TrEMBL record:
Acts on tyrosine phosphorylated proteins, low-MW aryl phosphates and natural and synthetic acyl phosphates. GO terms for molecular function: acid phosphatase activity; non-membrane spanning protein tyrosine phosphatase activity. This is Low molecular weight phosphotyrosine protein phosphatase. The gene is Acp1. It comes from Sterrhoptilus dennistouni. It is found in: Cytoplasm.
Length: 155
């Protein structure tokens, strides 16, 4: 569609999805495609609503020259109706999103794992919350590969 929309979702919206959102937004900006994409991220749960991303996620992004002002929010019924793509990080996200989308009568979003776009076939992007800086770096690399491939497919 002329105005492609994308949403990036993960469970708490403070680690993986803000990284994916920021990475995708930078790719889109670098390609001068901002006018074609609306990018956001949201949580399946309401645990962290209003919180800034994990400081390690912010540090990882900053290390790669990327800033984000994202604050965690919970996914809404409207998200399912307005976004073309809802990309998530793992199977539990996928189950929750599919269950929620079944309650929305005119869901137009295609819901899938972001990892399905990974050229290295790493399907699941593991939550780095209980890990260390290296785990956040792994998430960043996965998100970068997947977002690049996703953008190439839909650009």
């Amino acid at each position: 569609s002329e105005n492609s929309l994308e949403s990036l979702v993960s469970i708490g919206n403070i680690c993986r999805s803000p990284i994916a959102e920021a990475v995708f937004r930078k790719l889109v900006t670098d390609e001068k495609l901002e006018h074609k994409w609306r990018t956001d991220s949201a949580a399946v749960s309401d645990w962290n609503v209003g919180r800034f991303p994990d400081s390690r996620a912010l540090g990882c992004l900053r290390h790669h020259g990327i800033e984000t002002a994202h604050k965690a929010r919970q996914i809404t019924k409207e998200d399912f109706q307005t976004f073309d793509h809802i990309l998530c990080m793992d199977e539990s996200n996928l189950r929750d999103l599919n269950r929620q989308s079944n309650q929305v009568k005119d869901c137009k979003a295609k819901i899938e794992l972001l990892g399905t776009y990974d050229p290295q076939k790493q399907l699941i992007i593991e939550d780095p919350y209980y890990g260390n800086e290296k785990d956040f770096e792994t998430v960043y690399e996965q998100c970068l590969r997947c977002c690049k491939a996703f953008l190439e497919k839909y650009h």
